[in-house]
Design brief:
251 residues; mainly alpha; single chain; 3 domains; three-stranded antiparallel sheet; Globin-like
Amino acid sequence: MAMKVREVADLVGTSVRTLHHYDEIGLLTPKETTDAGYRLYSNEDLELLQQILFFRELDFPLKKIKEIISSPTFNRQQALELHRKMLLDKRKQIDQMIQTIDKTIMYTKGEIQMSNKEKFEGFDLSSNPYEQEARERWGDETVEKSKAALNSMTKDEQKALGEQMNSIYRDLASVRHTSPESEEAQEAIKKWYDFLNSGKIGHHYSLEAFQGLGQMYVDDERFTKNIDQFGSGLALFMRDAMAVFAENNQK
């Protein structure tokens, strides 16, 4: 049964003005209206609103949310799984901050000693660590650029590209039992970084994005399964090696 804007606002606990704003910016525009011009929200609209509010709860700006959910490759199931992971991490951080507050209260009462490091445990002043992952999956024009780059190649060129990728994976698999910080590991992972940024696949990875991509290799079981075909534990090794590479090459 379709719902009017006031009914949706009451159901969700938001304001009519907020829903009107979402409509105005093209973030959530109900397809149905009454003869009198009132917006009617379908179950599909409500599901999309839930998705939007999950992103908002995790501090994504509205512009970025619109970009993500408007992508033709957006996958609701994947997004929900990402939300869950992000919320679990957020809960862990909040629990840590509560512990820091409790210890600080005891410290101000003179009941315990507290190191300077302990005073700041739980704070996270970095940018949203999952925004890059969301952008890699659904944002910007990454997918379309990659498709365009591949479509512009002949079949022989595509085959050669695949063979080059496989060769790099095999080289990485051969050193996966060494330390990710070893010279061999870093030389091998640099080949992967250079390949991704060669322009052959229509995308450029910053060091931050490169590290985020490595984390995705472990977080997304599909990546893990494909990569580990070249050697058990390769995805985990690549994640660690990519993180070391990004850190070592930061200016």
